[in-house]
Design a protein that fits this description.
single chain; alpha/beta; Aspartate Aminotransferase, domain 1; Aspartate Aminotransferase, domain 2; 2 domains; seven-stranded mixed beta sheet; 38% helix; globular
Amino acid sequence: MIYLDYSATTPPHPQVIARVSEVLAQEWGNPSSIHHYGQRAALVVERARLAVAALVGVTPEEIIFTSGGTEANHLAIFGIAQQYERPQHILTSAVEHPAVSAPLSVLAQRGWQITTLPVDAWGRVDPEILATHLRPHTVLVSIIYGQSEVGTLQPIAEIARICRARGIPFHTDAIQVVGRLPVDVPALGVDLLSLSGHKFYGPQGCGALVVRRGLAVQPWLYGGGQEGGKRSGTPPVALLAGLGVAAQLAQTEFLPQVAQVRALRDYLCARLQALPGLRLTGAWPERLPHHVSVVWTGGDGEHTGKTLVHYLNQRGVCVSSGSACASGKTQPSPVLQAMGYGDHLARCGLRFSLSHRTTYVEIDQAVTALGEILQQLTPALSPC
């Protein structure tokens, strides 16, 4: 099988697997316990916190461990919202992951004013337009850093400067970015940043929210008061140990190979653009280094991007038709719709995402398989 769906998840690195297994066998104590086993487990957790903090350029005290990216996004949004007795105003974009847009919809049902900013044809937010939508009662801005479906990178540092000048907390969902591009949170100027371990060869089920020192965030989960009172629940010690290893490997192994991954991406893009009926989506070159996305202009109401995914899977190639969290749905992609695509084309998206382990031979084989599938399907179909 050829795996080209690294935006959905990455295989745990062998060193991660080894460390998780070691901790499960030897350091399985509850970190809240004050005896020997508890203190050994607590040391594992704090070492992991140091590694994650180093990866994104913050202090360990600014890292709150979570069960993954979704919980980190929820903690950022509700952690700010719960500080207000009355509904306030939040600014976001039309291309957010459901882990951000869904909790904001919940707040809208509770009377909060949610402004959803439009994006251009490449999926980018205009910082100048964003600035005009800030209000005196805006209490949070949340803009995704790297869009998981079309790969577009947002001008996060510029948006952060605008928010900082107005004293408004700024959150970014950086789940597709951390471990794939260098991230320095203080340099970016963001106040809250979400990350997830399984996007950079760590275990599934663990992540973190970076909270700028001095910013108040209310707990999302209550109970034992772990994570400095911000996130209750017994920490998954073994998973966090694996996350720490993945964070270290990101600095020593993954990030030094970004240029190699970009070269693979550009090669894949050129090969795909040579196939009839495919159109590149998302910004270029302001794009995730491992990500290529297209729409298939030869689909119809019955044959969509999911059709291509199924046929490619039969040929031993694993890709997706959009965000993995929404790939089982048949509705048009809200992200592609926000970028100006009609309903038919918004069902015809296809996403390829690569790794430093991906080879040019694998790319050639995948593109050849897709070309043969398109040749078989296209003559029988009318364009979208």
